[in-house]
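ADP-ribosyl cyclase/cyclic ADP-ribose hydrolase
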Amino acid sequence: MALSTQRASTSLPSTESPPRWKHDVFLSFWGADTCKDFVSHLYRKLQYWQTIKTFKDDQELEVGASISPELLNEIEASHLAIVVLSPNYASSAWCLDELAKVFESMETRDNTILPIFFQVDPCDVWYQTGSFAQAFVKHEERFRDDREKLKRWRAALRKVANLSGWDSKDYECERELINVIVKCVWSKVHPTITLSDSKDKLVGINSRLVELDFLLALEANDVRFIGIWGMGGMGKTTLAKVVFERISHHFEVSKFLVNVREVSAKHGTLVHLQKQLLSPILKENIAQVWDEQEGILFIRKCLSNKKVLLIVDNIDHYNQLEILVGNKSWFGEGSRVIITTRDERLLNKHDIETFKIEGLNASTALELFSDNAFRKDEPHEGFLELSKRFVDYAKGLPLALKILGRSLYKRGRDEWISALDNLNNSPDTKIFSSLKISYDGLSDMSQNIFLDVAFFYKGKEKNKLIEILDRTYDFSSLSGINVLIEKSLLIIERGNKVEMHDLIQKMAWEIVRRESRDEPGFRSRLYHRNDIFHIFLRNTGTEAIKGIRLYLPELEEADLSWNLESFSKMLKLTVLEFHNLMIHSAPKFLPNSLRILNWSLYPSKFLPASYRPNLLVELHMRNSKLVQLWDGKLDLPNMKCMVLSFSKNLTKIPDVSGIPNLEVLELPNCTELVEIHPSFAVLKKLTRLQLTGCKSIKSFPSELEMDSLRLLGLGGCSKLRSIPEFGIHMKNLTSLDLSGTLIEKIPSSMERLVGLENLVMNRCSKLEELPEFLRKMECLKQLSISETAIREPPPFLFQMGNLELLHFDGKSTMTGKLDVGFWGLFGSKSPQPLGFVLPTLRDLRSVVSLNLVDHNLCEGAIPDDIGYCMTSLRFVDLSGNNFVTLPASIKFLSMLETFNVERCPRLQQLPDLPSNHMLDVIADDCAALKLLSEPLILLSSPSTKSAEFTFSSVNCYGLVDEEGRNNEILSMIRRLAAEGIPPIFQRFNIVSPGSQIPWWFSNQSEGDSLIVQLPPESCSRWMGIAFCVVTADLGNPVAIGCEFLSMKCFWNGNCCNFSGFKVSGHFVRAHLWIFYMTREDIRHTFSYYNHNKIWLTNTTNKCGARLVCEQDLEELLHTTVKSLKRTHDYSDYEEGPSGSGSSNKESLFKRLKGRLFS
């Protein structure tokens, strides 16, 4: 029996005060019954996790004891009652009296009695049969003189059985049942509220309330301060208002102090707000509060013994907290103080627990926008794509979604398009004004840092940003950056990257645009193409310009009239970035004030003679025409990074000894670079030296002693015959690339590189041997050695237990020797059959990828112990070989994710596969394949959170009978049923030959499309959708691309593409595509839409689908068994061991139930 649900009311709250219930929920249950643990878990979830005040009577009473008068009062004082009807519930006279009293007290209130049928049939409760009948036999004897009592009890049981509630057998586990119950109770106790001063529909508020309720912990008797913080427009005040209206009746004193920042600025004092807080208590004596200090005294005196709910909205100064809320001793037990602010720093300074409010997700944002633009939950027909563009612009900011939606209400498409174009040029005034409040409260220096990040450094790593800003402003910028983070103007993302909300960035751009609306030359920072072109075409640059950043998406040629003399006027320019701009003239002047010079396609052979880069921190000149940077030695103490990649005219690097703080030197593909100045070899702070592709370099310094170096790239230096000796302090080098060099031997000093993790020596054609000390390098994880003069792999390679990736491809042509390539383990093709067994792999326990593609390996070539030794393997590719079977130990590869045996023409049977949470099996074009593994299944552990299984056997026609039935695939489903797929299965895909859709797929269609009607969201019984597609007989081999099999979801005329199983190859005969998506997977895939139909479209000739419910599993098994009987003996599924005809089959159904499609 499922609980009926109702849509939350959106009417205004009553002006009358809501009832002040002592308890939100009264729990009625029989404690001595089997439900005791269940009730304990439910109680904890209600009381502690969801802050629902719940009364649970824990008295241990004898069967038949009568209800106490005190308990009758607790029932009267409860808002709702949950009645847990367990098998022995009716044996307790106490419980039956309690139930009758619950109905007497609450029957007139709608939806306040919620029954749980725990391990009992509702019919037994209604008819008083089963255990209920047994209980009443005893009651009839005990209370034979009180027939009215018995009659009242029976009536109460019939009433409760007739109510919508929860039947425990409808849920796989108690946790799921409890979660559903708590969610329902929470919605009744704390319904979605419409603010009393607004007609706005509250979208996306409930999830925030759940998190905030946990912090409030209303059941606790301590005093709590909670700070809600986030950027402007996120809905902090709205959330606080909802909380206030929802819980204020639990407090003796409740007050909402609105917009403290504005009130404080208007009155110049906080006395006005102190009076608001105290007026309900002091009343006519409020005049005694005449200054802030008097107000503090009265607050402490009047509120310290009262349970108070105080909302202090929109603070921006610490003294506002000190004067209005002080500390916890000002308020009585159980008080709650909620503060909203944009500045997290104020909360931390006052030691207040914080709750950061984030933006809305895509689907909720679309709903909020639609509510304002269309007065409904979804866009009108034809407006979905436009709506999505506005939602994308708002980036989850509720204020922007409301303002934009309201501005478009009842407007036509042309006006929508025009409004969108205008937003790209200038932000909405209301949004801008709201966001700018945070900017206006910053110091001058913080404002400059904020604008610099918005224009030039968004996405920069925080520590590097601090270094640049420190040298830009000659002071520590760390505190300024932290202030911006605390005020929600900056965000630190993954990788310690400094980011900001898109609308905050647009606000910054608008602030600078308003510095000079008509002439860009008088603005401090420039990023817009037209503005930058304007100042160089008209020579209007001025000293006001601090930074220029021009990023063009495609290569663009500057007009010949571009005048680079404008630089001579920009004496305060600190940032100059040009990308994809081709300029024909060379600059004669660059400002010495530059900190960042990033100019790809730099047009000159030299930097201007007058330029002194003493303040420069980063120099990036990719694809430049530079021949050299400067003559001689320059002292550049601020320089950290120098990147000159693909500067193909560059011939030499100057003396760098005057750049002691240089950390990055990247010169890849500087093909004319002949020499590297020896001074770089002693740079103590250099971490990256990248010379890959510098094919003209012939020599290198004889010795390196670079303490900080982590990466040395010499790959492609094809004239380099020797590498330097490594000093004793080079313990930090982790990556060394020597590929494509002419080195003949590896220096013994490489043994000093104790931190080396990645060593690449591919295409070192003169290299004849590997030093055995490599075996001792414990940190080495990746070793790649291909196309060298080494004839065979040295034995120690197979003893390097820490290797995760080993690629060896020797040049041996000797008969019987191993022509082997390692990629993960092995790699290159072998044209002849290899009649050998691979060497023992038992020490390669860390290798994650085994590639033996096209080695023509025969039967027995793969060691039998592979599954016991290479336990870290995740990817195994054995395609293109000649073995018939594979080692059984493969099933022990517990990390395996991909198993590929395609194009193995002699392979007859797949091996057993491991018990992993995710597995992709590819067996295409295996002509001899007739049997799948026993069983080919996933046996994920119960702790696995998700599972995905894909299986492809394209062109394996040995799996199909003459009538087009794929018995092996159906047998796979049979084994899946027999062994049981874990309940966490999220998705599976199967592609294999076949032309018949089983009748179990009740929704079938000839052609390439069908419609699946989805139940309403309130329906909880359906579990997912199973699909089956049959491709057409094509007649001639056809190449199938990865987009061939796809699903499209149509809603209100709009389409969302979903790429399903990706398959590529050639096939002629019909194939089946079978796949399953859970309800949650469907919801996630199409989260942006409120779909009520799914249309499956393909280039196919048949489609099938079925909305999967629990009872469908039994039908699926019947169908599978019936289909397989013609070709296999399944008598064990038809009869039990004693010929009962159903016992084993019934057992199988039980194992299958709730597991195949969960």
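thats it. The chain has a mean pLDDT of 78. The first helix runs from residue 36 to 49. bye
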